[in-house]
Each structure stands twice: as C-alpha cells, then as structure tokens.
Design goal:
17 helices; mainly alpha
Length: 408
C-alpha cells in the first residue's frame, strides 16, 4: 500500500519538519524538569516554571489564532521556532555557565509558552492547505503516528542523555531540531492567507467566537473536554502515580508498563486510521474517548498491572480515534481562513480547567479514599463523554463526499 498523502510535495516537507521537531522536542519536559531540580531540588520550583509556561500559553492562545489567520502560517511557525531556539539556547547557556536561576527559567518559560500559543493554531490551520481532501485523514494519522512514537521512545532517549550528559545538552539537541526545521519549512509553498487583516484584532476574535458558537457539535465537545481533561489530569496524572507508589499490585515499574501500553494503543490505531476511512468522526471519536473511563475505574477497583495495561491499551486506541476524528471535523467544517481562530477557542476551552483539575485532585487525595475518587471519576468521565452523543450534530456528522472518494 502506498501512502497517498506523501504525493503532495508541501505535505512531505511539512511532515519532515514536524517529525524533526517532535523527535527533538520530546526531550523538553524531562530536560527542563531536571534543569530546575539541578538548580533547586524543590518540587515547588518546578511547579512554578511549568505553571509559567501554561499560563503564558493560555493568555496568548486567542491572539495566536488571530495572527495565524492573518499571516502566512509557515512563516509564523518559522518565526516562533527562532524564538524557541533563543529561549532554549539561553537556558542551555545559563546551565553551562552555572548562572541559571529559577526566576530566569520562569521568565524564559513565559516567552516559550507565548511562542507555543502562536504555533499551535498555525499548525492546525496549515494542515488542510497541504494535501487533498481525500488524503486529509491519512495526513493527520501520519502526524499522530510520529507523535505517539516519540511519546513512547522520546522520554527514554531524553532520560539517557540527561543522565549522561546533563539537561543542557538535551536542550542543545532540541534547539538543533528547530534550526534544521526552519529551512525545511521554507520549502513549503502555500497561497497567501484568505484573511489578510484590515480589521482590529478584537473584531477578528469576535468573528472566531461567532464561528465557534454557531456549531453545536463544536462547543458541546469543548465543554465536555473542559470536564474530561480536568478529570484526566487529576485521576490519571496525579492519583495514578500515587496509587502506583503505594499499591503492591501496581508499583512504579508497573505504572511505566501501563503508560507504555496506552502509547502502543495510540500507535497501532494511527496505523489503522491511515487506511480505514472514519465515516462518522465525532460519533466514533466520543465513543473512543468514553473508553478512557475504563482504566480510570480499573485503577480504583483492582490496579493489577496486566489488567490495567489492557485497559490503557484500549483507551489509547480510543483517544487516537477521537484525535483523528476531531481534526477531520475541524478541518472539513471550518472555513480555512477562520480555522486557526476557531482552533484557539477549542484549545483554550479544552485545557483551561487542567490546572484546576490538578489542584482539586491534589486536595481530594488527601481528604478521600483514592479508590472511591477514581471509581466516581470514571463514572463521571464516561457519562460526560457519552452525553455529547445526544447532540444531533455530534451523532450525525459525516464526511464530505470528496474526502471519501479516492483520486483516480
């Protein structure tokens, strides 16, 4: 079987650039974490640095969407990569010279978070410009394949590099990836943006909001994810490691196997979706997301490694069905000249409650039984995911005819 999406020259160059940055960027979280802990071995310092990135990202996200609809998206990505090279390079230089401090890393993380807020909407908006409608699902699945592969392998490579050479060298590798990607992205030739400005930024934000709110499938799922992501980060990322550390059935090593199983589920589903048309992207996507309630519930009921790994594998596959289905729904139903703005509202709504979920579950684990919290979380998670299927536009949404008709 040939990969039809790779016939498009623009997609080939974009895919190469994106793959390079995803591979080298997979080291970022580990490198930054150990860089902070090398300076000040205090978890609070690390939380401040990570929070600085997240808050900055949220603040600038909507403006990033407006800019990505006004200016050439490849140019925006290249410019932000240059900013990222400077910020990460500065972090590495400070570490090499032993002059790094937590406040300096917080400041650089703020800049890096703002830069990412412009990259993400531009990335979402550029993909439909790179390939034909019938290859769009395969293109998204290919990008997901690389993302899931580096999610599995990247932390291992980063851990080895950080342990042997130090976090500064991992940051050098990350900056080198962006440096290589910039000229590769220059080979992507796209038409000028459909919206060239002439109106105020706030006017453009209102237009984006109108587009967002006029689609019941869009705001219903974003509202659902506001709750689901808060539960996910709290139950899976906060309580999960706590249970692993304190339950002999699971253990820290067992938790590693569970997370790997989730990644394998994502990876295998990306391969399936490269060839299997997803005719009902939101219906199957939300059913896939509901499956994540299974490992959350199993974690509370009986967190044995094999059982939990099987549940995580199923959930990972379901998450990828949603991820591809959601990208298709956005890219095929939102006008291209407004896609980045609408995507920024999607990202903001979906992730704004993540810090709240982290704090709530941090409190819950000290005031309630972990098993009870997890079982209740699984029930709520599944209920919220499945409730979206009652929205007619979510249940009925199909695909355009030209997306399901192969080219001769």
């Amino acid at each position: 079987m040939h990969i039809a999406a790779m016939r498009d020259r623009n997609f080939r160059w974009f895919f190469l650039a994106r793959a390079i940055t995803m591979i080298t960027g997979s080291m970022s979280s580990i490198a930054l974490a150990f860089a902070v802990l090398e300076i000040d071995n205090d978890a609070r310092s690390l939380s401040f640095v990570l929070a600085a990135f997240t808050v900055s990202n949220i603040v600038f996200l909507l403006f990033g969407g407006v800019v990505a609809d006004r200016l050439p998206r490849a140019l925006i990505i290249q410019t932000c990569y240059m900013i990222d090279i400077l910020t990460v390079g500065a972090m590495a230089a400070l570490l090499f010279t032993s002059t790094a401090t937590v406040p300096l890393l917080i400041l650089l993380s703020v800049v890096n978070g703002a830069s990412t807020a412009f990259v993400l909407p531009a990335m979402q908006g550029i993909i439909p410009q790179l390939t034909n409608p019938e290859n769009l699902q395969q293109a998204n699945a290919m990008l997901s394949f690389v993302r899931s592969a580096v999610t599995i392998g990247g932390p291992i490579i980063a851990g080895i590099l950080v342990a042997t050479a130090g976090p500064a060298w991992a940051m050098v590798v990350q900056a080198a990836g962006w440096l290589i990607a910039i000229p590769v992205l220059a080979l992507v030739k796209l038409p000028p943006p459909g919206h060239a400005g002439g109106t105020s930024m706030f006017h453009d934000l209102r237009i984006g909001w109108t587009e967002f709110w006029s689609r019941s499938w869009l705001w219903a799922i974003v509202l659902a994810f506001m709750v689901m992501n808060a539960i996910h980060v709290g139950a899976w990322s906060v309580i999960g490691p706590y249970v692993a550390k304190n339950n002999d059935l699971l253990g820290i090593a067992g938790w590693g196997w569970v997370l790997s199983a989730e990644g394998v589920g994502v990876l295998l589903m990306t391969l399936i979706l490269m060839w299997l048309p997803l005719k009902r992207p939101l219906r199957y996507g939300m059913l896939g997301m509901a499956a994540f309630a299974i490992p959350i519930t199993v974690l509370g009921l009986h967190p044995a490694v094999v059982l939990l790994a099987i549940a995580a594998f199923i959930a990972g596959a379901g998450v990828e069905v949603f991820s591809t289905g959601w990208n298709l729904a956005m890219m095929e139903n939102i006008p291209g000249e407004k896609l980045s703005r609408v995507s920024s509202y999607d990202m903001l709504g979906s992730y704004v409650a993540v810090p709240i979920g982290t704090l709530i579950y941090g409190w819950l684990i000290t005031h309630a039984d972990a098993a009870t919290v997890l079982i209740a979380s699984g029930i709520v998670y599944a209920s919220v995911a499945l409730a979206t299927l009652a929205v007619p536009s979510v249940w009925r949404m199909g695909r355009p005819a030209d997306a399901l008709t192969p080219r001769a």
